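RECORD CONTENTS
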Amino acid sequence: MKKCKVKKHVLEPKKVETAIRRAKKDLIEFAEKYGVYENFGMDHYRAIKDRYRVGLTYSEKDKHNMLVLKSFFDWCGKYNPRNSFYP
C-alpha cells in the first residue's frame, strides 16, 4: 500500500495549528484517493513534533502545543474517510 509522505508546505508555518491543519488536509485527500493504512498519519505527527520541538520544555505555549498535537494524534487513529463527521 502507498504511504502518504510529509510535504514541505506542511512544515513551513510558524504555528503548530497551521501545520496540523495542512497535514489534515493532505491526509484527507490521500485517504479519499488511496484509503487508510495502519499507522495512518504517524509520519506527519512525528515530523510536526520534531519540527516544532514539542515536549522539550514545560512552558505554557509548549503545553498548549502538546495538547493540540495529542488531538491530532487521536484524529489520525480515528479517521475514517467513509464517516463525514471528522473535520
In short: DSSP finds three helices and no strands in the chain.
